[in-house]
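hey
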């Protein structure tokens, strides 16, 4: 199965392009990191970055779906706030082919993902580490429509740096 992913900075870039593009008015766009990733590559990347062994066993999709159909109602019935480890959302993500074309985004918006899958995963996992450092970043865009209506778009988020990941990225570079 193939997966499309989106790193937050790539999504923010696409939103910013759509906000200033006349071609975006009234349109919907698919946004991804621009490269299909196999389920195996996705799992191997996470395991490699977290220094964990890659799982060697798998549950057939049909069996997983049946189990999820039993576990989800059981979790709700017992009042648990979190979904079970095996649930329909995870099965859809890991068990189905998810391929979305971003050709329209490339052509109409000039979208070109800046962060590739490997770097995005590294940064995402680093942001979850205890000694990750973050800075809040905010952007505010205000404009007036041709009808004279004042509009405003704002967003904020955190940029994350993780000293160990940063050092690892520079190993071997002189």
């Amino acid at each position: 199965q193939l997966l499309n992913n989106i790193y937050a900075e790539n999504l923010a870039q696409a939103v910013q392009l759509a906000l200033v593009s006349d071609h975006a008015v009234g349109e919907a766009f698919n946004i991804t990191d621009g490269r299909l990733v196999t389920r195996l590559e996705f799992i191997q990347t996470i395991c490699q970055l977290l220094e964990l062994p890659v799982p060697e066993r798998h549950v057939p999709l049909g069996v997983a779906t049946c189990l999820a159909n039993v576990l989800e109602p059981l979790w709700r019935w017992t009042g648990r706030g979190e979904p079970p480890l095996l649930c329909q959302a995870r099965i859809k993500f890991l068990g189905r082919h998810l391929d979305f074309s971003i050709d329209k985004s490339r052509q109409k918006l000039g979208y070109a993902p800046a962060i590739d899958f490997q770097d995005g995963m590294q940064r995402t996992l680093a942001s979850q580490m205890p000694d990750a450092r973050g800075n809040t970043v905010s952007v505010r865009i205000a404009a007036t429509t041709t009808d004279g209506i004042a509009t405003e778009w704002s967003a904020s988020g955190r940029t994350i740096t993780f000293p160990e990941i940063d050092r690892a990225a520079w190993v071997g570079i002189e």
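The mean pLDDT is 81. The two ends are 39 Å apart (CA to CA).
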